[in-house]
Amino acid sequence: MEKKKIAVISLGCPKNHVDTELMVGFLKATGDVIFVDRVEDADIVIVNTCGFIRSAKEESIDEILTAVEEKKRNPEKKVVVAGCLYQRYREELKKELPEVDVFIGVDELEKSVEKILNKRFQPDKPFLYREILTLPHFAYLKISEGCSNNCSYCAIPIIRGPLRSRPADEIVEEAKLLAKKGIKELYVVAQDTTAYGFDRGEKDALVRLLKRLEKVKGIEWIRLMYTYPTHVSKDLIGLIAESEKIVNYIDVPFQHVSDKVLMSMGRKYSYSYIDELIDKLREKIPDVAIRSSFIVGFPTETEKDFEQLISFLKRKKLDWAGFFKYSREEGTSAYNLGDLPEDVKDSRLNFIEDVQYAIFEENSQKLVGKEFTLLVDAISQDMKGYVEARSYRSAYEIDGIVYLKGNFKPGEFVRGKIVGLASNVDLLAEPV
């Protein structure tokens, strides 16, 4: 029997990326498929969608329609739509997209082989089949599913349900398996990593889990993503400060700093709490790199609230910050608050990004002359004679790149000295 050719398009966050890796692994385990890069060359096209905010939904719909167009040219082609968008809009998608052959929700991954290939496949331990689709030296480690924080703007609980933490033994087993595959850097991810174990009534379960992950041989760097501000405990900060493997980097999405806006967002902390947390992190972990994200144009955000956010950024000079325009999502409690005009949201987004870019440049200038251990990701296509690398200060794809002069292999750790700026976020380095 000729093997089916499958093209996979994975959209959205790292948590969704892990779901794609599981699906690909299950399908590969059958031995009946081969994977191709181009939709045109595939017998089956899988689009793993994101349904979080408007722009992500639009991107998902565009990719589905592209696959459907290909099917019109070749009716034998099968189109599969998986993930968050379908989970959220099941009936609407089935009605609007009759051309789609198979739909798979986020809670149906283990049925993907049956649904796509009409074959029985029941994985006892799904993570054993996971096919790593990131660079060969780093991987995401998803420690829980869903979220119970119930922020007023967020559709995640609607899509993925309440918090469900994975068993610690299973997570450690998966980390060991990843290390055996050559993974050197682990990204600990979840909707809220710091809530790990809360659903089981456990306190500091994340700290205990990280201590076990530190002992996994072959893993050199552990990076903590998606931490909730009030769940960043004293013990967690202490562990990051002491650990040789957990890098001095933390991703803490603050979303805003105005007390009024935070309250209407359903975030359970204040401006003064954020201020103190940043000071505490910098005091206990002197070279910590702090990443955060912020929503601009929330319905209750006034010019005064926005100005408070700007002055906070100028004062605290965060190492990394991402900004999102508020997206009004049906089913969320914030939906009833109405919406600001799009031009107001757009102008605030453009302004705040310009402010932060200047801060990035200022922060980058301070790094010139310093030495770092750099992890090589790829041979640079943009700069001949250089490789693209990162220090502990940068997460792959979302933070700045260090262009390191020389010929080094991806996955290699190299000591480098920062000699200049390639842009306001990217640095130039030479090997020491």
UniProtKB/TrEMBL annotation:
Binds 2 [4Fe-4S] clusters. One cluster is coordinated with 3 cysteines and an exchangeable S-adenosyl-L-methionine. Its cofactor is [4Fe-4S] cluster. It is found in: Cytoplasm. One of its GO terms (biological process) is tRNA modification. One of its GO terms (cellular component) is ribosome. Catalyzes the methylthiolation of an aspartic acid residue of ribosomal protein uS12. Belongs to the methylthiotransferase family. RimO subfamily. This is Ribosomal protein uS12 methylthiotransferase RimO. It comes from Desulfurobacterium atlanticum. The gene is rimO.
